[in-house]
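Checked the freezer inventory, then went back to the computational side. Two predictions to log before the end of the day. The first one is the construct we discussed on Monday; recording sequence and tokens without edits.
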Amino acid sequence: MNKSTTGIRSFPKNYWIAIIMEFFERGAYYGVLSILSVYLVLSSAEGGLGFSREAAGAIMGTIPPLLYFLPIFAGALADRYGFRNMLMVAFTFLAAGYFLSGITRSYGAVFASLIVMAIGAGLFKPVISGTIAHVTNEKNSTLGFGIFYWSINLGAFLFPLILVPVLKRQSYTYVFWMAAAAGIILLLINIFFYKEPSGKRRTKESLTKIFQDMALVFRDWKFIVMILIYSGFWIMYFQMYGTVLWYVHDQMDMSSVNLAVNTALEWITGRPAKWQFDVEHVTVLNAGVIILLQLFVSRLVNRFKALPTIIAGIGFGSLGMAILALSGNAWVFITGCVVFTLGEMTAHPKFNSFVGLIAPPDKKGLYMGYSFFCSVIGSFVGGFIGAPLYNHFIDKLNRPDILWLIFSCIGLASMAGLIIFNRSVIKKQV
């Protein structure tokens, strides 16, 4: 087989433009997300907005669900009005939302600005993945989407690692302005370099058809129950951008990690180093582990059946949360985060396979499109319950161990639910 039809050289220019767009958009998003929940609750003297944890939880329980929900409609709109036009709208919303989030101070204005940002991100998601689908083929799509997903984590790794610590030392506002600048860069890339994908598109769907499909899926109680059960994992996952960041800021002494990293940096560079672990490095840790180990983990779990693999992944996630409950030691915290990320890498790639097993044969594509509702539910519930639980168990009782064990038990309940669901509903080994 000719490597030029399957390797790196097989991808056209528009593919690499889409990869660059994804890198900048996700880098800006995760750069902001890595500090957002902390910025919302810090006092004005510390450079934050001084909102209550419950108020911040309401924001964190609204923005991600909106971002994950909008692609249902955005894909149809892009097919109707054009990918390039939809990207113009998306990047305009992104730049405006980030910029306004950085200069506003009242709760309502900040909330509204972040909603504008989420609309832009939600419009962007299906267009960029659709572009990748248009410019790849059966021979190179696996590699193409692999690079695409790798670019997501590369952006989530580099922006919080390099840009966020420098910018927030000046002002948290600069982090939002950095993200707004990324939106403007994306707008310019779209104007001067991105080309409307050629070739036949899928049939243009009306919004009425979208709502009909949604009603069809939601009437399938088996699918809904499965989504609800798996959402337990995502309730845990979204704590990594909420309660876990508050915990690092308020409770954790990371001096031992700082000493180890700075010693290594001094040995490598021959110069004194003053690196410090802060809240944004939780995102860096998650993305870094995925970049290093996802290929290995994917190859390892590829040989196993879908359901046992998902259950094992949720088990790793639950174990990661339980490890956080063991001790306030910095290395225990790092270990817990790494184990949790291993769970994410194990469970999520197999989830689509499991959806395919319970979907009607002629509706598999439709069901795959709605499988992300576990993220909508997980981020919504996780955002709204995380803040009051943190207030009660950490701020009032100083018992972080109970908080992490509660979330770990949510994961264990998700595991048990999937086992029962398989035995009583699916009734076959999958």
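The second is the one RB wanted added to the comparison set:
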Amino acid sequence: MAFTEPVLTKRIPLDPSKRHAVWYDEYEATGGYAQLRRALEMTPADIIKTVTDSGLRGRGGAGFSAGQKWSFIPKEKKGPHYMAVNADESEPGTFKDRYLIDYDPHLMLEGIAISCIATQCDIAYIFIRGEYHREAKVLEKALQEAYAKGVFGQNGTFGSKHKIECYVHRGAGAYICGEETGLLEALEGKRGWPRNKPPFPAIAGAFAKPTVINNVETLCCVPPIMEKGPQWFKSMGTPSSPGPKLFGMSGHVNKPGVYEDELGITLDYAINKLAGGMKGGRYKGSICGGISMGVLGPNQLDIKLDFDDVRFRGGCLGLGTAGMIVMNEHTDMVRALRNCVRFYSHESCGQCTPCREGSAWMRKILDRIVDGLGRARDLEMLMELEKTMGIMPGTTICGLADGTAWATRTFINKYYEEFAARCPEDSQRTVPLTVIKRGNALPTTPMGSNTRV
């Protein structure tokens, strides 16, 4: 069985004019919270096994097994356990979590409650991007309904022994807080600086207690898995990347928006079938999952959009959030990379020198190239910088520098001729130079040569 009908967006019409926020009564009438009631009759271990067996991988970028992440939480409680929901959707080109919160907030809240039962979490914090003003209000209203109906609160979930609190915590617009430990620091009221690991959040997360951190879309997958089972979930997608996925399509396409399909569809299918084809010219490239993942080149339309093919054949970090920015033949790739690097330079928290200084150098070099002053050694410097900054070279705490490096690497490698044309070999320019000595005029001399006689 492949993807035949919407799963995560079944309550969200394709027609924008018919979309509306689904509140508690409508959500319950369409099967909502039934799986939460079922989870109350299961043991935490059984819930974790169900999610693990489904093969659900995190939809926030890294693609780590959700069930395995839950299993890292200590089974013996020696204090409170916390859940942090990463709704800090700040990756350029990504807007699928906002879509779910806008129109079906209770799907996420049910996923939160089920995961809290599975991991014995007492308090859940929804860390939402500061710029999501409307979405924060939608969540606050949905939470009020959930409390009133007994989903959360000290009376226990639907009268059970599980007492879960849930709060909306608004960020302040820092991209770095999308990194899970930076998020935890901000949640605690500190500066959003990523932490050194270990210890990992599952052992010492929020307030130094065991903490689960999951993305919005990941949690929205939990109720359908509980309802239809792991095998149903694995019937969609690929063996290593099962299930449905939201694809955020933007850029030079005829129908930008959020579309649901299974993992493993090709880039060509996503552009032409989901987003209505190219707009304004032929295909040139696509950022596959937010700018930190890198760019897919002009001959990679057959790449499968899953967590593995994009990495191994596409040369990118991975699928990321599946926020696709599609670019046509008229796109200036030098300027496109400059915009990416300028973003990372601005959003670097400054804690790690290679990231802070390296991204700033990259930005200055690319500014010079865009201004028409590029030199051949500029490309050499950019490629040297991208190899020496990030977690993978072992020089930074978090992956922001890797995103900067991977964007630089893939843009230059896949569009080298375009960059090289803006960075010509240094030519020996000559300037009229007359040196008077013993009354003889010397010929013009190449710049930089020794003019002494």
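For RB: The radius of gyration is 26 Å. The chain has 18 helices and 13 strands. Let me know if you want it refolded.
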